[in-house]
Design brief:
By secondary structure, this protein is an alpha/beta fold. The protein has 8 helices and 7 strands; from the N terminus they run E-H-E-H-E-H-E-H-E-H-E-H-H-H-E. Helix 2 links the parallel strand 2 and strand 3. The longest helix has 29 residues. It is globular. Bound molecules: nicotinamide-adenine-dinucleotide.
Length: 261
């Protein structure tokens, strides 16, 4: 337990699983009140309950990042219950792993709606509250696909766009003491690449449950292991804390060196 986020209020999307869950746990253990937000209400409720059970502060809220009104209501709820918003971490994401020819326009749009427009809506939704607060820190999650081809068309387009969006938001809000940065994770062992879910369909050809796929990905990680949600959460903690008070518009690879190859 530490105090690097003592008294801070953090909204964490995708908080019901994987990296968002990891950030919720680490941020809460550093003194933040975390609002664990996810389209999966059961999962974000469970994460918030578990955080409270170990003595830290958490709330949960069902959020579909595609829905602007839902974002507005979440920010209102956070202001009513916690008084302010200091941090927003945009983790919610989805993918259909198909190339340009086989990906339908509907699939492409769904990915952009969640991964890129959902983040845009989140940055918009917290802007006024953070300005009134006189400070703020926003963290967006890119990918290896932010800098190199891979993961399917909609995914690559959305994650490339995240970098442009992050820099735009950083510049627009710098005078308000609101920072905006991005982390580009590499291969992180989460349900996103392991399980077959609605937001991230996987089959035997794509899941890391398949030992061949696991080994193939592992070969591309110079530091020799998959990243964990905790690896990403610790970098997120730095970027969202006062230690990074002069860091904005930055893109931090947390990928074990994969983007070097
Ligand atoms: N796992 C990886 O290897 C990896 C690598 C690079 C980037 N990423 C990115 O990291 C982010 C987090 O992924 P993860 O690996 O933790 O995946 P995950 O599947 O464990 O968690 C994603 C969460 O997002 C939620 N979600 C999906 N659609 C949503 C919506 N419309 N509104 C609100 N919540 C929604 C899901 O319910 C889920 O809880 C994603 O943006 C993903 O693209 C993942």
């Amino acid at each position: 337990m530490g105090s690097r986020l003592e008294g801070k209020v953090a909204i964490i999307t995708g908080g019901g699983s994987g990296m968002g869950e990891g950030q919720a746990r680490v941020f809460a253990s550093e003194g933040a009140i975390v609002v664990v937000a996810d389209i999966n209400n059961e999962n974000c409720g469970t994460v918030a309950e578990e955080i409270k059970t170990v003595g830290f502060n958490a709330l949960h809220y069902q959020l579909d990042v595609r829905d602007q009104q839902n974002w507005h209501d979440l920010v209102s709820y956070t202001l009513e219950t916690c008084g302010k918003v200091d941090i927003l971490c945009n983790n919610a994401g989805m993918n259909f792993r198909t190339d340009f020819h086989s990906q339908t326009y509907d699939q492409y749009r769904q990915i952009i709606d969640v991964n890129l427009d959902g983040v845009y809506k989140g940055c918009k939704a917290v802007g006024d509250a953070m300005r009134k607060n006189g400070r703020g820190s926003i963290l967006n999650i890119g990918s290896l696909a932010s800098s190199k081809h891979g993961g399917g068309t909609g995914y690559t387009v959305s994650k490339t766009g995240i970098i442009a969006l992050t820099k735009n938001v950083a510049l627009a809000y710098a005078a308000d003491n609101i920072r905006c940065n991005a982390i580009c994770p590499g291969h992180v062992d989460t349900p996103f690449i392991r399980e077959d879910s609605k937001h991230s369909p996987n089959n035997w050809n794509t899941t890391i449950e398949n030992p061949e796929n696991y080994a193939r990905r592992l070969e591309t990680i110079p530091l020799g292991r998959f990243q964990t949600p905790d690896d990403v959460a610790k970098s997120a903690l730095f970027l969202c804390s006062e230690e990074a008070s002069m860091v904005t518009g930055a893109v931090l690879n947390v990928d074990g060196g994969t983007s070097l190859l």
